[in-house]
Amino acid sequence: MARHSSVHLANLDLNLLVTLRELLRERNVTRAAAKLGVTQPAVSASLARLRRHFRDELLARTRNGYTLTALATQLADQVEKVCDAAERLFATGHDFDPGVSQREFTLFMADYTIEVLAARLSTRLAEQAPDVHLHVRLVREAFASHVAGTIRLIDGMVAPPVNRFEVPDVRSVELFTDRWVCVVDAANPHVKDDELTLDQLTGMPWVAPFQPDRGFTPAAPMSRQLVLLGIQPPIQVRVESYQAVPHFVAGTDRVALLQERLATRVAGRLGLRVLPCPGEPEPIVERFWWHADYDDDPAHRWLRQVLTEVAVDL
Fold first, then answer.
1. pLDDT of res. 243
2. Which residue has the higher pLDDT, 238 or 89?
3. At a CB cut-off of 8 Å and minimum separation 6, what does 33 contact?
4. 180-282 has the same fold as 2-82
5. What pLDDT score does 105 carry?
6. What is the pLDDT of residue 10?
7. Superfamily (CATH H level) for 92-173+287-313
C-alpha cells in the first residue's frame, strides 16, 4: 500500500470510490450496476480500472460467484468510512428535513448501550425520519486508542468518559447515568445474604468483558472498578460483550459486575440475583461523542437532539 502514498486526489476519478463500495458490498458486477443505476459494461470497465490501480483482482471468481481478495477485504471497511465521510461533507451546510432525508448516520455503541437505547432510538427515527439510514457498529475497547482519527469518519459514539477520549476538537454531551451492581445466580450456595463483601468478591470466580489474553488491565470500565475497589479476582470467563456476561454467570457460582439497567432486564429471565456492589464504585455516565467538524451540520444537530431526547425518556 505504500506505493500509493504519492497519489493526489486531483489525479483520481473519485466516482470510482462509489463503484468500489458497491462492488465490495455486492461482490457481483450486475447487482452493483443495478444499485448504481448504470450499465453492467460501465461497472465492468470501472472494475478493470480499479484492478489496474490496486494491482489486485479485488473480486476473485469462484464456482459460486465472486469472493473478495485479501486486499479487497482490507479495502472494504476503508471505502465505507471514506464514502460516509464524503457524503456527510457535501451534506454539511444544507437545510435538513428529517421527514424526507435519506442520509445515513454511522454510530459506534457498546452492546450494553444498544440494549438501553436502541428500541427507543429506532422508534423515534421511524417516526421522524422514515427514510434516514442508520449504521450501528459495535464499540471495541481497542477503538479508544484511535479515537482522534476515527471520530472524524463517523457521526459519533456513545461511551463513558475516559482520559483517552479527551482529545482536541472532540465534543460530548451527557445522555444517561447508571451504576455498577453485582450479579450472581439465584441458587449460588456461597451467596446467602443480600449483600456481598469485598472478601467474597476476591475469592469468587469471575466473568469479565474485554479482558486481555493475559494479565489484568484497568482499561475496560468494569476492570477499572475492580482496581478502584482494590481487588484482583480470578477471571474464569472472558467475553467480548457486555450482554454475554450474565449468560455465563447463570447456573454457576460465578459473579460479575454489570450495569444495573442491563442487569435488571435479564435477571428474571436468567434466574439471577442483582446485589449492591460493595465499596464505592464510580457512577456510570454515558455520553455522546462527536467531532467538532459536525457542530454546525443541521443533520448532525438533529441527530444529537434525537439522542438526548431518547435518553431523557429513560
1. 96
2. 238
3. 39, 40, 42, 43
4. no
5. 93
6. 60
7. Periplasmic binding protein-like II (3.40.190.10)
Apex 30 CA angle, 27 and 33, nearest 5: 95
Under the banding of pLDDT at 50, 70 and 90, the label for residue 213 is low
pTM here is: 0.71
Fold for domain 2-82? Arc Repressor Mutant, subunit A (1.10.10)
| Cβ atoms within 10 Å of 225's Cβ, excluding its own | 19
Look at residue 11 in the predicted model and tell me its pLDDT.
Answer: 63
Tens-digit pLDDT profile for residues 214-235: 655 556 778 888 888 888 889 9
pLDDT, mean of residues 131-142: 81
- Return the domain boundaries, the chain: 2-82, 92-173+287-313, 180-282
Of the candidate CATH numbers 3.40.190.10, 1.20.1250.20, 3.90.226.10, 3.60.15.10, the domain formed by 180-282 belongs to: 3.40.190.10
55: phi > 0 → left, psi -120 to 50 → alpha, else beta; which? left
Is 70 exceeded by the pLDDT of residue 306? yes
